[in-house]
Design goal:
Domain Co-chaperone DjlA N-terminal: 33-149
CATH class: Mainly Alpha
CATH topology: TerB-like
Number of domains: 1
InterPro entries: DjlA_N, TerB-like
Pfam families: TerB
CATH superfamily: TerB-like
Protein name: Tellurite resistance protein B-like protein
Helix content: over 70%
């Protein structure tokens, strides 16, 4: 499975820009996994100095969302870091999510982004901006955005 993930993710650029109907379902699933991971990593990268607590929050969110083995999660996180480093916009990641995720799933992605931002008990303005931008691209309403933020805050306190 890890080899399959690596092979599919090695063709990331093509898969993220390909029309949704041209990908096999397994390729779409792997592309969605990577797109989700990249957006979570972007929140982590928004603040100078990577925090272990934020990295752990990214892994926890990915673990909850996808049925992957630990080594697959680690590889996904590595690929997400590399992809985030070379990315210039969020639309290539949100496009497939808008086509394949339900509104509830998109809200959960935004909530997971908030969890990453709150993991170090400090909300940076850059983190806030990334989440706001992605929420808009995912067509998450302001009310859903605020509810996701409050839910993530409550989860961090509980």
């Amino acid at each position: 499975m890890l080899r399959n993930l690596k092979d599919l993710f090695d063709n990331l650029t093509a898969s993220l820009t390909a029309p949704a109907g041209t990908q096999a379902p397994a390729e779409q699933e792997h592309t969605l996994q990577l797109a989700t991971a990249v957006l979570l990593v972007e929140v982590m990268r928004a603040e100078p100095g990577l925090q272990d607590s934020e990295r752990d929050a990214v892994l926890a969110a990915l673990r909850r969302k996808f049925a992957l083995e630990e080594d697959e999660l680690q590889r996904l996180l590595e690929l997400a870091h590399e992809t985030a480093r070379t990315s210039y916009d969020y639309q290539r990641f949100t496009r497939l999510m808008n086509e394949r995720y339900t509104q509830e799933q998109k809200i959960r992605v935004v909530e997971a982004m908030w969890e990453v931002a709150f993991a170090d008990h400090h909300l940076d303005a850059h983190e806030h901006h990334v989440i706001s931008k992605v929420a808009g691209l995912l067509h998450v309403t302001h009310g859903e955005y605020i509810a996701a933020k409050l839910h993530a805050q409550a989860a961090m306190k509980g």
